[in-house]
Amino acid sequence: MSYIPISDRDKKEMLAKIGVNSVEELFSSIPENVRLKQELNLPAPLSEMEVLDYFTEKGKKNDFSRYLHFLGGGAYEHFIPAVVDYLSSRSEFVTPYTPYQPEVSQGTLQAIFEFQTLICQLTGLDIANASLYDGATGAAEAILMGYRLKNKKRLLVASNVNPQYREVIYTYTKNLGLEMVEIPYDKTGKIDQAGLTASLNDDTSVLLCQSPNYFGVIEDIRSLAELAHNQGALLAVVISEPVSLGLLEAPGKLGADIVTGEAQSFGLPLSFGGPFLGFMACRKEFVRQMPGRIAGQTVDVEGRRGFVLTLSTREQHIRREKATSNICTNQAHCALRATIFLETLGREGLKKLAWLNLQKAAYAAEQLTSLPGVSRKFTGQVFNEFVLEFPDCWEKIDKKLQEKGILGGLALGHHYTGLENCALITVTEVHNKEKIDAYVQALKEVLA
Amino acid sequence: MINLIREPLIFEISSPGKSAVRLPELDVPEKKDLLSGVPLRDDIEGFPEVSETELTRHFVRLSQMNYCVDFGFYPLGSCTMKYNPKINEKVAAMPAFTMGHPLLPEDLVQGNLELMKFLEKLLLEITGMEAITLQPAAGAHGELTGMMLIRAYHTAQGNPRKYVLIPDSAHGTNPSSAHLCGYIVKEIKSNERGTVSVEDLEKEMTEEVAALMLTNPNTLGVFESDICQIADIVHAKGGFLYMDGANLNAMVGVARPGDMKVDVLHLNLHKTFSTPHGGGGPGSGPVAVKKILEPFLPVPVIEEKDGRFHLNYNRPLSIGRVKSFYGQFLVMLKALAYILTLGPQGLREVAEVAVLNSNYIRKSLEGIYHLKYETPTLHECVFSDKFQKEYGVSNLDISKRLLDYGLHPPTMSFPLIVHGALMIEPTETESKRDLDLFIEAMKAIAEEAREKPELLKTAPHVTYVRRLDEVQAARNPVLRWEKTS
Amino acid sequence: MYPENLYYTKDHEWLKVEGDEAIIGITDFAQKQLGDIIYVDLPQVGKVVEAHQSIASVESVKSVSDVFSPVSGEVMAVNEALSQTPDVINKDPHGEGWIVRIRIKNKEELNSLLKAADYEKYLEGLEH
Q1: Between chain B's N and C termini, which has fewer beta carbons within 10 Å?
Q2: pLDDT per residue over A379-438, tens digit each?
């Protein structure tokens, strides 16, 4: 089974037309010495039934469904309405290429245009691109964009930005002679303002922060923007849990210049980490430094509205080594899912979703901290994630909780010294009261 | 049907109070003033409000404006628009794979890790390479990762080197990726056969050159027959041979990059290995390398010990992460399902029929469309509009006219070394009937170019929208909907 | 077609000398090759350039072209009108569509530039 519709008879006719005797002859430009002399050493072909069985068997080795989990940290479990799967899995959305022929790609292009609009509405900024790979590469692209705009080598990254995002930023910037400085956090869990002021000077292109940050704490974007702008730097804000934007003021309205992040929360399953969905928005005047594709509105020869990919001279296929980014294929289908998700929820739905997350997390935090020896590590206000400190090393507690079928949170000790007794706990709308209470009960037993 | 309806933007059909979902009521005691002092929004200005019926019709109508592989011939050169098997989608939608949080304890995701490790092993066999990372998100991301590996190696030897050589026929991502990795790009000229000029390469290859980035077969569909000699020239000066695997479909099962002395290779699972393009992603761009570069691979790497799989982060020479988590996991599953379905013979047949189909088109259109390079080609062929230019007809006009015939046009204006290029890659997916439909349409269009050039210059005529004003789109960018009061 | 009082380059820039300064733009041939111009990336006033260095770039929908300074000098002024109406270059490439004004550092560099007749001859050669 190779999904090949050419029969032996077709082959003969086609070879005759081409004027060769065998398919082998068509490969004569490949030198004999590098041609395979035998078949590839791969498993024998499977039937569709066998393929299904194979993956079903391997799937059973993923032994997580019997656990109740409270994990987040950049990947969130949210409810996905049935229409999202149903509509997004149509062939017409799944099997086209990038919309390079706009006349026969209006579906994809209009959906991108709607996605860009939704991202602008959420972030409070003027323009958004069609997508980036994920939140981590989005953060790296934001840093590089800030550098192109300001042309100063110093880049500030808050240490309470998702550690994986910081690692990717470091991988991207270290070959370019840029100076990345990490800014400490304080007891609120937010960026330490004294530490920031000490590092922020007029050789700084951009300050990158995350809100809610990796500790779940909401940053004071307005004052960070002011501090950055006073030194002539830009403020880039990373959002890894964009459901929060249903409640929190749009960062663009608080002074952020670039907002980037991860939109997996909008209708994408956890999928062991991918595919996810990076997004980016910025102020209008920065559009020529924006990475990635952008859809724009125009008219056809009859004056009817239509959409095209535009401002392409920023991109690699035209500007080559001078392009704003090397990105080509992005996450278009994931952006489509997010568009359907957001339009399904709509104005009131997203607000309510955010409110449910906030309330449930607050309830969980309150219940968990009512147990002896358990307390909030940071005083800053949170959305749907929070850090708790336990009387013992988290890894020990985690292990005991797992024995009770609870995955209670993410360890922080690997990335932050001094937080060995702490865990990052995430609560979303998928956690009903019963589940939260089950966690509290289990922890109570573990600590007893 | 869709041509009868003009579908508005969702924002234009929105009306207050509608919703397409009901969320559960709060089942814990509500707390007031949770976010006091934090700036909150009163509203999400402009956000749509529609019912589920309206939403469904909106997206079904949008979908009907799209051309797709499941509808018809899609001969975009260098894009490998092959059929996307449905079993792959089914596999990737299994809850055992979609529900897993990426930071679950390793013990609970042994299935995922085993599948990834197995895919790695199969890809290594297919490519003849020695180590691999699945982390990069797409082809260009793979290129960047590959160049970072090379830079990390050279840096470890004491000199990252300055230059990367790239042929003038290369895809734009190659120079862009090299630049993003801190290198200066030097272009290598193509010779009269359309392949890399070995003389030019010898002249440019110095000990300050980190690597040569080569697409093979190249963007003309021509196999670089001097590949081993090219590799020797690059290796003699301590450089690496990077191969862009965008065109691997032409030789899968027939020849392996690893046997051609290639040091680094990125794959596009969304090309060769049948995962859908999704209107522009997600893709997946694994990078395979020779042993010498293994220590530099991104973290984490998957290791197997006594039948258990483990993520190793402790790799001091690693370039670090290029993406969060482990890559486009669901895309990997689709590629794995494809390889398991095809098996070794099936994969070889892919290359054979892809090359057969391309040569059939080439032979059928020779003389009708201009072929700049006479060199034999594999999976794709590049014609130009030179003959039609005589009647004032360009490759753009030809492409737009194809839309009226219900066919998707080839890649246009690329590679840059062919003016007015029409780059045709049929892939193994097409039946002889579909190939003939395309050939007949191309012949008819050549005839029309002579007889009624205006018909082409004003094409397309029967699509949902006709030719769009890209100049206006770029001069006065409208990049989002805004409420007009 | 090509004004006698301008100098030209093989990269299709023109240069008009006014005292110690020079006005620089792209030729009619160049604007035709590019097609509809949608954006001009202008330099900062005060920027110092060497001859043959990129001083600005001109974009159409699907291409970007560098504008190389025919001579060395310092940018004294840029044509601000182009940021709003870049298509002036299409309409009047040798006049209203000027791009930058620079102070010439070394007048001897002018000797290596083409006169109108030479440029026209050069263009004829390109068309064959």
Answers
A1: C
A2: 999 999 999 999 999 999 999 999 999 999 999 999 999 999 999 999 999 999 999 999
DSSP string for residues in A10-76: HHHHHHHHHT-S-HHHHTTTS-GGGB-SS----PPP--HHHHHHHHHHHHHT-TTTTSEE---SS--
From chain A, the residues in CB contact with C36 under 8 A are none
B interface mutation test: which of C33, C34, C37, C38 has the most B CBs within 10 A? C38
Q: How far is A308 from chain C (nearest CA, A)?
A: 11
Report how far apart, in Å, the C-alpha atoms of A166 and of each of A136, A163, A237, B147, B178 are. Answer: 8, 5, 13, 20, 22
> Which residues have C-beta within 8 Å of that of residue A147, sequence separation ≥ 6?
A153, A155, A176, A178, A205, A206
Query: Which ipTM did the prediction report?
Result: 0.97
Contact state of C38 with B471 under an 8 Å Cβ cutoff: yes
Q: Are the beta carbons of C38 and B413 separated by less than 8 Å?
A: no
Residue contact C62–A313, C-beta within 8 A: yes
Nearest to A97 by CA among B230, B168, B77, B20: B77
Q: For residues B337 and A19, give the distance between their C-alpha atoms in angstroms, rounded to a whole number.
A: 36
Tell me which fold the domain A68-78+347-447 belongs to: Aspartate Aminotransferase, domain 1 (3.90.1150)
CA distances from B190 to A317, B167, B174, B214, B413 (A): 19, 7, 16, 12, 17
Can you give the pLDDT at residue A1?
66
Q: Is residue C51 part of a domain?
A: yes
- Domain spanning A82-341, CATH architecture: 3-Layer(aba) Sandwich (3.40)
pLDDT tens for each residue of B208-236: 999 999 999 999 999 999 999 999 999 99
CA distance B390 to chain A (A): 24
**Side chain identity at A247, as an amino acid letter?**
L
* Radius of gyration of the CA atoms of chain B, in A: 25
Residues of C at the A interface, defined by Cβ within 8 angstroms: 38-39, 41, 59-64
Q: What pLDDT sits at residue A322?
A: 86
Q: Please give the pLDDT value at position B447.
A: 98
How does pLDDT run across B22-55, given as a tens digit for each residue? 999 999 999 998 999 999 999 999 999 999 999 9
CATH assignment at residue C25: 2.40.50.100
| A320 — pLDDT class (breaks 50, 70, 90) | confident
- Residue span of the structural domain in which B175 resides: 87-341
Q: What is the pTM of this model?
A: 0.96
Task: Determine the distance in angstroms separating the CA of C4 from the nearest CA of chain B, rounded to an integer.
Answer: 32
Instruction: List the single residue in A79, A164, A328 with the smallest CB-CB distance to B173.
Output: A328
Q: Which tens digits make up the pLDDT trace of A79-138?
A: 999 999 999 999 999 999 999 999 999 999 999 999 999 999 999 999 999 999 999 999
How far is it, in rounded angstroms, from Cα B214 to Cα B381?
Answer: 18
- List the single residue in A107, A127, A433 with the smallest CB-CB distance to B64: A107
pLDDT at position B415: 87
Give how far A135 is from chain B: nearest CA, Å: 8
State how far residue A317 is from chain C, nearest Cα, in angstroms: 9
* B20 reaches A (C-beta below 8 A): yes
Question: Quick one: pLDDT band at residue C127, thresholds 50, 70, 90?
Answer: low
Domain boundaries, chain A: 68-78+347-447, 82-341
CB of B70 less than 8 A from some CB of A = yes
CB contact under 8 A, C63 and A312: no
Which two three-digit tokens encode residue B37? 């002092």
Across the interface, whether the CB atoms of A312 and C62 are under 8 A apart is answered yes
User: Domain check: are B319 and B399 in the same one?
Assistant: no
Q: Tell whether B109 and B157 lie within a shared domain.
A: yes
Q: In chain B, what is the straight-line distance between the N-terminal and C-terminal CA atoms, in Å?
A: 32
